[in-house]
Amino acid sequence: EKKRIAYEYEPQAFLKAYVRAYETSEPVFLVIEEINRGNCAQIFGDMFQLLDRNEAGESDYAIKPETAIQEFLNEKLKDCVIEDETIKSGEEMRLPANLHIWATMNTSDQSLFPIDSAFKRRWDWKYMPIKYDNNEWKIVLGDLEYSWTAFQKEINKRIYHATNSEDKQMGDWFVRAEANIISESLLLNKIVFYLWNDVCKDGEGDIFNIKTADGKTEAITFSEFFKGDKTVKLKQWMEYLGIEPIDGDDEQDEENHQLETGVKPADAKSITYSKPEYKTLVENMLSQIPDEDVS
Q1: Using CA atoms, how far apart are residues 57 and 96, in angstroms rounded to an integer?
Q2: What is the structure's pLDDT at 112?
Q3: What is the pLDDT of residues 193-234, one digit of tens each?
Q4: Burial category of 169 from C-beta neighbours within 10 Å (exposed 0-12, middle 13-18, buried 19 and up)
Q5: What is the structure's pLDDT at 115?
Q6: For the chain, counts of helices (H) and of strands (E)
Q7: Is 245 in contact with 142 (CB distance < 8 Å)?
Q8: 234 exposed, middle or buried (CB, 10 Å; 0-12, 13-18, 19+)?
Q9: Using alpha carbons only, how large is the chain's radius of gyration in Å?
Q10: How far is the CA of 151 from the CAs of 7, 18, 155, in angstroms?
């Protein structure tokens, strides 16, 4: 007897969730990640009509599935308690109230398949704002460290002014920091590249400039970061953006401040300064403190 190739219908995530929802009274969740990455019209097909729901949470309209799906549903639902025999037999499909479909969407993605308004109207939407809560992340450039959230906020502000839109702003998980560190390579090859290629590709925005050693402002292209010392140029870029380095030795600075001024940091005037200006600022502060207050 000759062997014959047989094909069996293999259900995917949607039908598995659909069947499970009729098998139980508990809530069933089907989660679709980044729904706008695909062609929703093709993916949902006729099932698009099932998304219209009544006040009870059930589909307003039923659809007639293809034969293979009917046979699969008839087999899986035959022992379920379902009043509507057309649903139980698989002849028709209708979403039950306990089947919840959740989807995520990143609006900054440049999807090849835009979602039409008719599809959007069938969903309840909840906006998830950028939280700027990765406060422990640091950008490390040579011997200097910079706050990721300070950089993220400044860049997003400039992206908005460049594009008049929030769509291309960098979210909290635009990159993933390794042990809370964003390396020079990650900054340059993913973040700077994105800004150059997607945000400022037509020359818009006040982003690609550096502050040179002599205090001049110069425009810079992405490829020019790779000519010469990349670290120096990235530091000059940070300076132009107004991102100050993080002082990594706060305790030592406080001790030095107290020894040189005789004033505890909590009592001293809060001043942000760079290292070369330290001596001048301390002298100015000392001149404002009465002698009897200095121990």
Answers
A1: 7
A2: 66
A3: 999 999 998 878 899 999 999 999 999 999 999 999 999 999
A4: buried
A5: 83
A6: 11, 8
A7: no
A8: buried
A9: 30
A10: 55, 45, 6
What is the rounded distance in angstroms from the CA atom of residue 246 to the CA atom of residue 235? 13
Beta carbons within 10 angstroms of residue 280's beta carbon: 10
Cβ-based burial of 133 (10 A; exposed 0-12, middle 13-18, buried ≥19) = exposed
Query: In 3-state terms, the chain is what percent helix, strand and coil (to 5)?
Result: 40, 10, 50
Beta bridge partners of 155: none
- Which candidate, 41, 40, 42, 60, places its Cα nearest to that of 50? 60
Q: Cβ contacts of residue 294 below 8 Å, gap of 6+? A: 261, 262, 263, 286
Q: How far is Cα 127 from Cα 140, in angstroms, rounded to an integer?
A: 32
For residue 9, what pLDDT is reported?
Answer: 80
Residue whose entry in the numeric block shows the structure tokens 């098998």:
23
Distance CA 68, CA 78 (A): 16
Q: Which parts of the chain sit beneath pLDDT 70?
A: 1, 108-112, 248-295
Between CA 38 and CA 115 the distance in angstroms is 9
Between 230-241 and 148-163, two packed helices, what is the crossing angle to 10 degrees?
A: 70
Q: Of the candidates 136, 134, 124, 220, which has an alpha carbon nearest to the alpha carbon of residue 170? A: 134
Q: Token digits for 103?
A: 């989807």
How far is it, in rounded angstroms, from Cα 239 to Cα 279? 22
Q: Where are the beta strands (DSSP E) in the chain?
A: 28-32, 99-103, 138-141, 144-147, 181-182, 209-211, 217-219, 245-246
Other beta carbons within 10 Å of 256: 13
